[in-house]
Design brief:
Helix content is 59%, strand content 15%. The protein is α+β, with helices and mostly antiparallel strands. It is found in: Cytoplasm.
Length: 92
């Protein structure tokens, strides 16, 4: 939500490559941070490919499996965070 008088962060444009396809990413995050995310995704893709051995997975299948893994990690972190918040509130 934009508010009058609030200074916006400048937007960065970064061209990334994942599985041979180029994407233009625009946002306030630094190019270094975006490239770190790309490396994380590429590592996950390699892990999924290795886990499936000789099976030929399409880019779409790889992307969905990686998205599932990352969503699982995010959800577990969210649950842990909520539990910690409840413990902190109970300790007050």
């Amino acid at each position: 939500m934009l508010t009058r008088g609030v200074q916006q962060k400048p937007l960065n444009r970064v061209t990334i490559k994942i599985m041979g396809d180029e994407y233009n990413v625009v946002g306030p995050e630094s190019p270094e941070y975006i490239n770190h995310l790309v490396k994380t995704i590429e590592t996950k893709i390699e892990e999924v490919q290795k886990a499936h051995g000789d099976a030929k997975l399409s880019k779409t299948q790889l992307a969905i499996l990686v998205a599932l893994q990352l969503t699982d990690q995010l959800e577990k972190l969210r649950i842990t965070h909520e539990k910690m918040e409840k413990l902190i509130q109970a300790a007050k």
